[in-house]
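Handoff note, outgoing to incoming analyst
You'll be picking up this chain. Sequence as last confirmed:
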Amino acid sequence: MKRIPNFSNHLILFVLILSLIVPIYFLLKGKTHSLKGFPLDDAWIHLVYGREISRGGYLAYNSGEPATGSTSPLWAYLLGIIHLLFEKINNIVFAVKILGILFHILIGYFAYKLLNIITKNIWVSVVGGVFLAISPIMVVSALSGMEISLSILLGLIALYCYINQKYIITGVFLGLAFLARPEFGTLGLIIIIEMLIGIRNKRIKPINLVYCLIPSVIIGSLYLGWNFFVDGRPFPATFYVKSIIGKGMPLFQRIIIGIGILAKEAPLRSFILWIGLLGGLICDKEQKRYFLLFISIGIVYLLGNLILIPPWDPIAFYHIRYLIPAIPFIYLSLLIGNYNGLIYMAKKARKERKRWILAIRGSYSIFLIFSLFFYSYLGIIHWQAKFYNDCRNINELQVNIGKKINSVFSKDSKIGTIDAGAIRYFGNRYTIDLMGLNTNYKRFFKENNYLDALVLMPAWVILPKEHKFFVVYSCMTRNYQVTSNPNMGIQVVGVTIGDSEHNICKLPLLILGKRIDINLKCFNKKKALNLAIDFRDAN
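Most recent structure output, in case you need it:
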């Protein structure tokens, strides 16, 4: 009787060890940049909010000014705790990666536990946990400094509690998942629909729906209430800006591209895994319920994101990361379908006494596991190199510019920028986000405020033919791969040169086709040249 639990514990330990080994490989193989950097500037935006939380206790982009730019307040507060525990930036970055790895390990664990409850088959459970543990895109998510792993973990825990009929705790984790990533409101929607079906079938008592709804609504309302209090709108500023930018792509095209993105990533890349869709149709009633629950969560989450944010650049982690939380739910549903398909074949073989059916079943199982390993291996090679290169690009561009701004400009300087993460975090200056994701630039300039300098991305910006913008520093990174547009690997820092009689110059810019009239402090030519020298000499 003791051998089975011990054996089970060893297999769980195997899943947990793999969940640790692959992220460590990514970090050690990438050396300095992978250890000290992030593959997206957005990670530094989260750290900006985390640092301000450690200082003031609330969400802010510039100190003392409440903001609604955070799309993951729960992650920002966790980063705030890290800032309270550590002072040096390298230690903060390392702690963020350790936290991400911890969440990644727990994702593998809960995937194992969920499959074990549903299929009651330890080997299917191990396959589920292992291939999420070594999935390269899941590993990159854990190390990215983003909220992806946190939101996935909370979603899986909510589902685990729901299956175990712990409805109040389910509601709590649904609310927390919403705070980690607002799109996880779709998870709550699917569970509510599933519970309503259960109430109709007299499988669930109506009061249990109330138990689930109350905590999730209370927790979710905190985030919506904060946004409304600060900005007069329930959703973060990011939602309104990115939804406008994304209007140019037809929905059908978004869906095709989005499915293509997920289908090329391990573990979903394995074609044989998708036969689980057929297996899901021949499940018994209880298994089909779980199959439909998991795949509905994945599909609705995927569609919700594609409706909000079109995947303009399918090879960029920036766009892939929005869809990643759908992967575990779709993957687990396909495993449930495959398992039930194999069970069906086994029953048919016993009934008809045909060994060739059993042979096909065994071969299918071996080929499925082999293909999952093969595509995971290919993905690890690709994503380890890309992760390192993306981190290097961000370090050499945005982080470098931010550090130089901190060295060159006085403490009371105001900076305008398009990339609003590392430049604000390392620059330590009052910063206006010209994209409008974190600050209200219209109100800033309407109140006759001005900026001392701009950090611009030439690939996105058009200056008027006659202008007084003077570049004091130009920065580029080699082999730029953060996006598919290599021109985005160049950014410049500039000021305006004007007559000494005028303190403020007006500079009209076209940023992605949108005009912004910017008030800039004027420098005389000599001071501008000195700034250029200071930037060149700054470390």
